[in-house]
Specification:
Order of helices and strands: EHEHEE
Radius of gyration: 11 Å
Number of helices: 2
Structural class: alpha+beta
Helix content: 25-40%
Distance between the termini: 14 Å
Strand order of the largest sheet: 1-2-4-3
Largest sheet: 4 strands, mixed
Oligomer: single chain
Shape: globular
CATH topology: Translation Initiation Factor IF3
Length: about 70
């Protein structure tokens, strides 16, 4: 179960990744952030962001035209 959820559908690159980065600063270590986005580069952007911020990418799940991800902050 996620501690926070961001619905970033309809936002274009790089806005979903920027929302993840911004929200991660207000969360406590160990909390789970879930994001749903339909930007074509969302998965690749999320992977790079998690690597650069040293956060764990727990899940990537396709949902129609979108992808749902979970990140451990």
């Amino acid at each position: 179960m996620a501690d926070k959820f961001i619905d970033a559908r309809g936002l274009k690159c790089p806005l979903p990744a920027l929302k993840i980065q911004s929200e991660s600063f207000s969360m406590k270590p160990g909390q789970i952030l879930e994001v749903l986005a339909d930007c074509p580069t969302f998965e690749a952007d999320a992977r790079r962001l998690c690597e650069s911020l040293k956060k764990a990418l727990l899940m990537i799940k396709p949902e129609g035209d979108a992808k749902r991800i979970q990140i451990r902050i």
